[in-house]
Amino acid sequence: MIWLVLTMVVIVIAAIPLLIERYRTPMTDVTRGGASGQFAELSQGVTHYEWLGPPDGPIAVCIHGLTTPSFAWRAITKGLVSMGYRTLTYDLYGRGYSDRPSGAQDRHFFLGQLEELLDNQNVTEPFTVVGYSMGGSIATCFTAAFPDKVSRLILVASAGMGLTSRGLMSFIIQTPIVGDWLMMALFPSIFHRAVKAEQHQPSSVPEVYDMQREQTVYKGYVAAILASRRGILADVLRDEHRSIAATGIPVLAIWAADDQVIPASAIGCLAEWNRDAKHAVIAGAGHGLPYTHAPEVIEEMATYLQTPA
C-alpha cells in the first residue's frame, strides 16, 4: 500500500509544473490588446514589432536578448531616434507579444524570423544592426550570412563567444525530458530571484523589472528560454566574426565591466577574431546595461555612428 501512495505522490509532484504551464496565460489577440506597435503574420506565427523615428532616416534594427523582450530597448531607441535613426524593434518568438512556436531555436529559426520581418516591412537598404546578449548572436549570424544588408554591427554584452553553463543549468540543457521538467519547475523562481538581485540598479526603462517578472506568466516563455539555451546560445561564433572582419563591416562591441552573464574573456575572444572591432567597457554596469546604463551606451553608440563607415 505504501508503494502505491508513494507512486501517487511522485505522479502528483511530477504533474504540478506541467499543469502550471498548461494554465499559464496564452498569447492571444486579447493579451496583445494593450501593446504598442504593430503585428506581422509570419510563417512561424505573429511577430510584434515597432518603428520609431523619422521615416526617411537611416535604419537601425535592434534585437533583444534571451529573457527580456523588446522593451529592453526603450531608452536606447530614444537615443537612436535623437540621432535621426528610424529604429525597428521586435519581440523574438517566445517572448513579449510574439507567438510561441515549438521546436528548436537555433540560428535558422531566428534568422528566418528576422528575414521575414524585414521582407514584410520592405526593408531593402543596408542598415545598422544592434544586438544585445543573445540578440548579439543573432545579429552576428545575420551579418555573416547577409553582409550586403548590413552597414554596421553594434554588439551590446553579446553572446556567441562561448557561454558556459555550470551546475544545474548545464544538466538541464544537456538532459532531455528530465531537464525539461526541471526547467518548468525551477526556472520561474530562479529568474525572479535574478531580477530581484538586479533591481537595486536604477533603470531608464520604467517598470522594467516588473515587466521582466511578468514574462513567466505567459505560456511558452520558459520553454523558449530552454530551446534557445540548447540552440543558438550553444554556438561559438568564431567563424562568423572572422567572416565579418573579412568583409570590412565596422563593428562596435559594448561590454559591461561587472557582467555576471557574459564573461570578461569574451572581449579577448572578439578581439582575436576581429582585430578591427572597436570596444567600449561601461564601468559599474552589469548585464542589464541597455536599461541600467542607457546614457553611457547611447554615448558610445553616438560616437561610433558619427564616424564615417
Topology of this structure?
Elements: H1 2-22, E1 38-42, E2 45-52, E3 59-63, H2 74-82, E4 86-90, H3 107-120, E5 127-132, H4 134-145, E6 150-156, H5 167-174, H6 178-198, H7 208-214, H8 221-230, H9 238-247, E7 251-256, H10 265-273, E8 278-282, H11 289-292, H12 294-305
Parallel strand pairs: 3-4, 3-5, 5-6, 6-7, 7-8
Antiparallel strand pairs: 1-2, 2-4
Helix pairs in contact: 2-12, 4-9, 5-6
Structure description:
The chain is of the alpha/beta class. It has a single domain, classed as Alpha/Beta hydrolase fold, catalytic domain (Rossmann fold, 3-Layer(aba) Sandwich). The protein is 44% helix and 15% strand. Strands 1-2-4-3-5-6-7-8 form an eight-stranded mixed β-sheet. Helix 4 links the parallel strand 5 and strand 6. Helix 2 packs parallel to helix 12 and helix 4 crosses helix 9. The longest helix is centred in the first third of the chain and has 21 residues. The chain is globular, with a radius of gyration of 20 Å.
